[in-house]
Amino acid sequence: MAVEQSPAESPMEAFYRDISAKSFDALWRRHGPPTPTADEVKALYQPHLWRWQDVEPFLYRAMELVKPSHEDQRRVLTLDNPSVNPMHAATHTISGAVQVVLPGETAPSHRHTMAAIRFVIKGKGAITFIDAEGCTMTPGDLILTPGWTWHGHVNQGDAPMIWMDSLDVPLVSMLRHGLYEDYPDQLFPATKPIDDSLHRYGRGHLKPVWDKTEGPISPLLSFPWEQTERALHELAQSDQSPFDDVAFEYTHPTTGGHVLPTIGCWIQMLRPGVKTLAHRHSNVSLYHMFRGSGSTIVDGVQIDWEEGDFLAVPPYAWHEHHNRSTSDEAVMFSTNDIPVMESLNLLREQPYLQHGGHQPITGQYSASTGA
Amino acid sequence: MAVEQSPAESPMEAFYRDISAKSFDALWRRHGPPTPTADEVKALYQPHLWRWQDVEPFLYRAMELVKPSHEDQRRVLTLDNPSVNPMHAATHTISGAVQVVLPGETAPSHRHTMAAIRFVIKGKGAITFIDAEGCTMTPGDLILTPGWTWHGHVNQGDAPMIWMDSLDVPLVSMLRHGLYEDYPDQLFPATKPIDDSLHRYGRGHLKPVWDKTEGPISPLLSFPWEQTERALHELAQSDQSPFDDVAFEYTHPTTGGHVLPTIGCWIQMLRPGVKTLAHRHSNVSLYHMFRGSGSTIVDGVQIDWEEGDFLAVPPYAWHEHHNRSTSDEAVMFSTNDIPVMESLNLLREQPYLQHGGHQPITGQYSASTGA
Amino acid sequence: MAVEQSPAESPMEAFYRDISAKSFDALWRRHGPPTPTADEVKALYQPHLWRWQDVEPFLYRAMELVKPSHEDQRRVLTLDNPSVNPMHAATHTISGAVQVVLPGETAPSHRHTMAAIRFVIKGKGAITFIDAEGCTMTPGDLILTPGWTWHGHVNQGDAPMIWMDSLDVPLVSMLRHGLYEDYPDQLFPATKPIDDSLHRYGRGHLKPVWDKTEGPISPLLSFPWEQTERALHELAQSDQSPFDDVAFEYTHPTTGGHVLPTIGCWIQMLRPGVKTLAHRHSNVSLYHMFRGSGSTIVDGVQIDWEEGDFLAVPPYAWHEHHNRSTSDEAVMFSTNDIPVMESLNLLREQPYLQHGGHQPITGQYSASTGA
Amino acid sequence: MAVEQSPAESPMEAFYRDISAKSFDALWRRHGPPTPTADEVKALYQPHLWRWQDVEPFLYRAMELVKPSHEDQRRVLTLDNPSVNPMHAATHTISGAVQVVLPGETAPSHRHTMAAIRFVIKGKGAITFIDAEGCTMTPGDLILTPGWTWHGHVNQGDAPMIWMDSLDVPLVSMLRHGLYEDYPDQLFPATKPIDDSLHRYGRGHLKPVWDKTEGPISPLLSFPWEQTERALHELAQSDQSPFDDVAFEYTHPTTGGHVLPTIGCWIQMLRPGVKTLAHRHSNVSLYHMFRGSGSTIVDGVQIDWEEGDFLAVPPYAWHEHHNRSTSDEAVMFSTNDIPVMESLNLLREQPYLQHGGHQPITGQYSASTGA
């Protein structure tokens, strides 16, 4: 089996040559990236901030340049964190984007194995169609388009409709499970009443008595801002997290769990002047700063943000939040991969124990350099 | 071992005598109530209606005669279905009652292994204290006092506060697990903010991110009518059950399941003029007719009810509902033992298939005779 | 509404009369059995011991007197604890019995909503048929006949086959859910291979890859003594409970939970000379002393037992076990209502903390008096 | 914000340049690998066969060349499927390897977030230590070393001990969660009895009554071949899958689910002469051919294998198995990523419906070319 050894070749070299020819490798010579210990672990890529002052003008230029269609897909600007190589995504598991649909426009129905959520930023009068249901869209609403559901959008209002998209594209791509189909017509027919799932599950903890929904996909597809906002103000009176201040996860009405098996959705409110304590965890977060202004310190670097900005925080990065206003609340919507890390038993969290729980600030985030 | 047989005694009689002396019985001579087949099964006791026109004057007399205290317990009138022998209860698993607390009064804290719910009928300004939390009470609100929680009531308003109680007393008594304790002082101290659980879980499907609640007891203790009413009207636009029309179960926010392991709570709305189809099931229901007027046909007997009435429907009784008004909705709150029957794998349901799904009416319910 | 008061009648008496006429009662005058506090709670009925030296001769007499048929049901002697009034059962939730089938006999198929287990005491060559499956029976085997499954027995061996039955009859009767049907023919046809479920699930923690079994009923119907005995001896080397020594619960292979939703099954081995510590709990236990001899002290009374005896321990009775032999193991099989108490959130356990964990012995159990 | 357009640059080009400078991309110009529709989907990489006739001599050469230590890690040959770029692994989620430990040798304890299983191929007298427990190793045994458990191996026998390793390394690496630590000493101390978990959970469906194990990691760490082999022969008498013949998944004793959250383990037996039907699915499988010889047809290519070979089957490849012997059984052990695909709602399966369920054979697998 073994090939003759050349004079200059050591027995070990010959061995490596031989096993390689048969598609084996020797674990002891494998030179991958060094695997850190739990104490040494650091964020493996950089956080990134995308500013609304950049996004908004780009959206206006895109309105002129592109029209949604099956050919051109959506009028979507993706958030590409330059440090998440080789992916074009905000984080290594969760992607983000901003989409705009003009009055009168239709983004035709398609479906894909990748799941998505939409968080509405601006506009009024648009509807997202998910399989047979239409969901109205108002700023602050969260809308789910689970994997392999037909979905399209129509703007019947009189102003551009802008929302944040967040998907599990990087995760599903790594798992080699990306399937995609266009619906043969413009829109999959909406045979259910508008906001049907909201009317079945959305108002209080009440379930239609005949409902037998099971499985990991929330049957409730829209979570209106009106209720979310009230909930934030009421929880603010009752309790807060030292790391996240007033913070909710959106939940699946018939299991109480995550809304999707691959994407967790959070809404949180930093009360005026609040500085949270620092911690880090194995999951990522992708924030949209829905209201207010503040700073997030990530691995010692202060990242100042304004209303509308997007911020990606990588796994194992120490981070803490600060609402810079002493009078106004700041509201952050975010998506994360907690459901994935939890399912796979990989979720870890660690509080920052030095300096009273706050990181020393070692630099200011600069848009041009990343960090 | 066997005793000598007397001359007149057959070998079988001697056998029965001998085994009985040693605390055995012979299964083949056991004469219990005949066990029916699935086809033969009938309601084993009668439905019963308690009329608000009777209840209300009794409550006013009770206000003069009794004062809540640890000695006299609560000012509570229990619903005693005469046909549920030997129990004093509305059904064999779920009991019901009406309680009134006068302005300025306190019903001191106690706790018991039996779980209870309160559904508010009239009044304003009272608070139910459940362990460390106070829950405000408004007509139509559902309040939970789970088993072994300290609970007391205070009326700080200016009118009598009246509510329906429903408990698992008959079930827990059968299971020989009734424990009871008075709190040494008037009220267990309320150290949490008023309506704390409502502010944590009550507004939409949102869960505080730090929450780790598990187990079969809902951490949400109050379900306000404001949301319930809106939900009923929205579901009315989307979907209905042929047997129950517009009907919700109240749910546990972190599991999506029943609010308590022994009592299920439903709210349902019969749209104007609606006649539901008949069915029957192994679980009981105890209704409070919160709004409107209608008729329920139970095993062919028409039971007319008005706002405020209470109706117990026994297991395996065919039943269907009719909103007699063509202009007004009727709203029925009810408790049931579905969680128990489901846990023990004893839940069965059967639709009525004859006569287009409606029972022939064979009689009118008469208060004096029961059925 | 109120009837006129008679001269001798107080206002309260008149009130009681009036509400009673309308099927109400006043909670404050309710005189039930006094509800104890958690500290005061005591066993509400007595333990009971049935001796094999009584059982065995009765079985032989019953063999002559009765033949299994649809008319005479089974040749079954039930264990009637005289203190569990008004039930004829070993405990208030779980009943027990001994059944014997002679060589060549058939106990015809029937089904009932009550679930049962069989624990084989003596004999060889019998088969229990459960729906379409036949399960072989060998001493020490546990066989399940879940609620509403057709089941019959055939003895194809050459000696009487004797086993313990344990059912949820008292529980299901209290819940008014007892349904019963005879199979029109002798035996429901066995279309599956003998011991089919044992061959699918029974050998190690392995599940057929196509299996989708769900729900609270174990798909594995027989648990052979050969494996149980080996498990007991291996666990004896690894770990023990202070209250139960070497003790296993039989489990549901696709959920890891209880084998039935209403009956838990345990097997335990007291190593030679072992004295366990005392504790008490809200669940009952009904023991069959399969091997060895020992004593169980229940609420201070010492109950000596021999191989073959049956012992019912009521809820909230302090109890501890003693293997009187210093050379031989004692093996106790038992059924319990833990699954019920757990589902309904009523399971409580309390260790005995005085006297080093052992009760002072205050008396000896006497068969004639009960305790 | 927008930079001036150069003369030769179109507005779209300028737009792309501008957004790119701010770390955005336009979804509509994204050129990734084309995403297939559900009908078009094909295996994204090639199957691979590693032959025992190659492995065994390499192992003997490795015995001379390497000694296990913290520096050199393990004497492990990894299975590197050349088509799974850019990973060095058998599949994109599950890796495989062969490890050998010589008599008297110790592979020192380390731990990592990656979970592993061992399937014993040859030898006797070795022990794998997992945290405080030692598990004996016999050919055909499955041993689990869950993520972040300390594990080391000692060979106390007199022949080399050879086993298959399979890990979730590619998955955990993609998820950026690889942590690694060497134990400071040779072996983490084994304070539990040998085969402790086997003695607690391993013999039949029995659970120590005091056990409260929860969570997704099986507390049973070893699954002995003695029981597995008996189970295979018994299931062969009862039932089979058309796609996998006699096939079991190893299960978690207290949940009935997968043994690990990231790796599923199967054992299957092809009865003599059996040809299974073809199907495909979104999960991968990595087989070790433990006994016998046969052929697996993957996407039309016939792959002949002998005892000891390893075969990786990629997602969405059509495949069917054939036991070429008409007298001997073939036994295949395999690992898969079904638990992952199931948790993330990405598990899909499809039967092959043409040609009576069997693929036309279009080629023979050649070791040198891959496929």
Can you describe what's shown?
- 4 copies of one chain form a homotetramer.
- In chain A, the strands form 5 sheets. The first copy, chain A, has a 6-stranded antiparallel beta sheet with strand order 2-21-18-23-16-15. Chain A has a 6-stranded antiparallel beta sheet with strand order 3-4-11-6-9-14.
- The longest helix of chain A is centred in the N-terminal third of the chain and has 14 residues, at 52-65.
- Chain A is α+β, with helices and mostly antiparallel strands and 371 residues long.
- Chain A contains 6 helices and 25 strands.
- Chain A has a single domain (48-364), classed as Jelly Rolls (Sandwich).
- The model of chain A has no long low-confidence stretch (mean pLDDT 93).
- At the B-C interface, helix 1, strand 1, helix 2, strand 3 and helix 3 of B face helix 1, strand 1, helix 2, strand 3 and helix 3 of C.
- Strand 1 of chain A pairs antiparallel with strand 3 of chain D, so a sheet runs across the interface.
Largest sheet: number of strands, sense, barrel closure of chain A: 6 strands, antiparallel
Strand order of the largest sheet of chain A: 2-21-18-23-16-15
Instruction: Please identify the oligomeric state.
Output: homotetramer
The general outline of chain A is globular
CATH architecture type of chain A: Sandwich
Measured as a percent range, the helix fraction of chain A is: 10-25%
- The low-confidence runs of chain A, each spanning 5 or more residues with pLDDT under 50, are none
In percent terms, what proportion of residues of chain A is strand?
Answer: 25-35%
Give the C-level CATH assignment of chain A.
Answer: Mainly Beta
The fourth-level CATH homologous superfamily of chain A is Jelly Rolls
Terminal residue distance of chain A = 53 Å
Number of domains of chain A: 1
CATH topology label of chain A: Jelly Rolls
Q: How many strand elements of chain A?
A: 25
